[in-house]
């Protein structure tokens, strides 16, 4: 055989061997792009490097670089019945993570700390609103009956626990975990979550009771306009006339009722995942629940301040259910006149109750 013929045969064999070795790589490239590029709306299946084979047994593994460059949701394949578990990451999830880690802490700090700062400034400039004594001082008039006080305290105590456990969700890992350590923080957060879930039920029941018992006394009227124009007596010494609820108390009432309904509805969606909403619906519920929650916490801080430190005599309405008649006439003159007009002898211990400041 001629040397030239031998060289041609060797070249043909070399070319055949090269093509055989390149075939798996070519097939791998086709598989990786058969369903569209991973960074153009594909899934994690698009991001794999191909089918495993003898030369590359890890070809089906996801490329870390391709995952980082993924622009659409990342999904995979699961063998469990819950197909939702195949979604690893989706755009709305990244948006919620930005809200959860960035916007929400700022909202919480602005509303809660801002309210505390405003109340501190008010206290040190205005001081405590003192009880005005008169010839009626020492006489009592009933403001709340037993059921009304029960409704108030059941709702209030439940909300306090809900507020503390909710704020732990926002600020706990930033403020508390560095102080007590990760193990103690994990245990505390677990029990806080249990308390949040279980005490949400008496809170929802209390909001319902409040709506039924007090809605008639919380319909806005003309006296509220006068009360607001005069600053409710907080900006001066004179107290504008008010009925069972003044305008400020009506704001508190509707904040609790409407805010409580929003918290209840969004909370139930999250408490029973995927029962009435998909993952996007539950993330929307998180937005509503967290935002309304921090706003209502700030409002309740103001309410607690007025009912305790801010106004002398106000706590008695929810403590014993009775208030000093001079205090009632000063802050709720129209209501006192209505109550005293019901009898010829003045206020009665069993008179119809109404919320106090």
The CATH homologous superfamily of the largest domain:
Transmembrane di-heme cytochromes, Chain C
Structural class: mainly alpha
Domain module tally: 2
How would you sum up the global shape?
Answer: elongated
Strand content is under 5%
CATH level-1 class of the largest domain: Mainly Alpha
Tags for this model:
Fumarate Reductase Cytochrome B subunit; two-stranded antiparallel sheet; 357 residues; mainly alpha; 4 strands; 63% helix; 11 helices; two-stranded antiparallel ribbon; disordered C terminus; 3% strand
Report on this model:
63% of the residues lie in helices and 3% in strands. By secondary structure, it is mainly α. The protein has two domains: 3-89, no CATH class; 91-341, Up-down Bundle (Fumarate Reductase Cytochrome B subunit). The strands form two sheets. Strands 1-2 form a two-stranded antiparallel sheet. Strands 3-4 form a two-stranded antiparallel sheet. Residues 22-44 and 347-357 have low confidence and may be disordered.
Write the layout of secondary structure elements.
Elements: H1 3-33, H2 64-68, E1 74-75, E2 87-89, H3 91-126, E3 140-142, H4 146-180, H5 182-214, H6 222-229, H7 247-271, H8 279-310, H9 316-319, E4 322-324, H10 325-331, H11 333-341
Antiparallel strand pairs: 1-2, 3-4
């Amino acid at each position: 055989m001629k040397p030239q013929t031998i060289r041609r045969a060797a070249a043909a064999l070399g070319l055949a061997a090269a093509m055989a070795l390149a075939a798996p790589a070519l097939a791998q490239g086709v598989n990786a792009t058969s369903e569209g590029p991973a960074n153009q709306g594909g899934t994690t299946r698009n991001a794999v490097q191909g089918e495993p084979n003898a030369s590359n047994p890890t070809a089906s593994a996801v490329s870390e670089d391709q995952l980082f460059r993924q622009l659409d949701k990342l999904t995979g394949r699961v063998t469990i019945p819950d197909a939702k578990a195949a979604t690893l990451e989706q755009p709305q999830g990244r948006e919620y993570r930005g809200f959860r880690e960035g916007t929400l802490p700022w909202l919480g700090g602005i509303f809660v700390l801002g309210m505390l700062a405003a109340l501190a400034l008010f206290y040190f400039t205005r001081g405590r609103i003192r009880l005005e004594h008169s010839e009626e001082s020492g006489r009592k008039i009933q403001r709340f009956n037993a059921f009304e006080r029960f409704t108030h305290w059941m709702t209030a105590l439940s909300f306090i626990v809900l507020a503390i456990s909710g704020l732990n969700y926002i600020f706990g890992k930033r403020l508390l975990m560095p102080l007590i350590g990760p193990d103690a923080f994990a245990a505390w957060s677990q029990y806080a979550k249990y308390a949040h879930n279980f005490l949400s039920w008496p809170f929802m029941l209390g909001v319902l009771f409040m709506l039924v018992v007090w809605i008639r006394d919380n319909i806005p009227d003309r006296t509220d306009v006068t009360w607001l124009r005069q600053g409710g007596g907080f900006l001066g010494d004179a107290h504008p006339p008010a009925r069972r609820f003044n305008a400020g108390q009506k704001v508190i009432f509707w904040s609790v009722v409407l805010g409580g309904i929003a918290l209840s509805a969004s909370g139930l969606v999250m408490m029973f995942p995927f029962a009435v909403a998909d993952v996007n619906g539950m993330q929307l519920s998180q937005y509503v629940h967290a935002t309304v929650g921090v706003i209502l916490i700030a409002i309740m801080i103001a309410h607690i301040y007025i009912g305790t430190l801010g106004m002398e005599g106000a706590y008695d309405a929810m403590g014993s259910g009775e208030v000093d008649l001079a205090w009632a006439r000063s802050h709720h003159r129209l209501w006192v006149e209505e109550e005293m007009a019901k009898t010829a002898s003045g206020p009665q211990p069993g008179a119809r109750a109404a919320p106090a400041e």
